[in-house]
Amino acid sequence: MCFFDQHRFACGDWKWGHFRQHCNREYRTGETCGMKLIMQTVPVSQKCKLCDKIDTKQRRRNAEIDRISRWQREGSKFRASIDRSCDMIKVLDREIFDLGSERQRRLQAI
């Protein structure tokens, strides 16, 4: 039951921070007993890395959708580009889903 800081992100996710204090079960310097308790919670105004990745992929997906709508307004001469962008949107959707699932899995592991 060694004590650590906890960093809580704006998205609600969290991560362990620096080691703060030994418990009475662990006497060796530099070692911890393995059970982590929170000494203090440090609020962080940023989102976690997973949420940043999800936001980046969402922006890229929205840009692809805007491109497709622009190409469709200009006519049918961009058919190959439209198909390639549709494939890219499918790939981005899968990556966004996977990242969201990873985030949910991490939240369930608490």
Layout of helices and strands:
Layout: E1 2-8, E2 14-21, E3 36-43, H1 49-74, H2 79-108
Parallel strand pairs: 1-3
Antiparallel strand pairs: 1-2
Helix pairs in contact: 1-2
Brief digest:
By secondary structure, the chain is an alpha+beta fold. It contains two helices and three strands, in the order E-E-E-H-H.
Descriptive account of the structure:
It is a single chain. It is built from two helices and three strands, in the order E-E-E-H-H. The longest helix is centred in the last third of the chain and has 30 residues, at 79-108. It has helices at residues 49-74, 79-108; strands at 2-8, 14-21, 36-43. 2% of the residues are buried. Strand 1 (2-8) and strand 2 (14-21) form a beta hairpin. It has 110 residues and is of the alpha+beta class. The mean pLDDT is 88.
Report the sheet-strand fraction.
Answer: 15-25%
Question: Spans of 5+ residues with little confidence (pLDDT < 50)?
Answer: none
Could you tell me the mean pLDDT? 88
| Number of DSSP-assigned strands | 3
Major sheet size, sense and barrel closure:
3 strands, mixed
Shape: rod-shaped
SS-based structural class? Answer: alpha+beta
Q: Can you give the helix content as a percent range?
A: 40-55%
Order of helices and strands: EEEHH
What would you report as the Rg, rounded to the nearest angstrom?
Answer: 22 Å
Strand order of the largest sheet: 2-1-3
Distance between the termini: 16 Å
- Count helical runs: 2
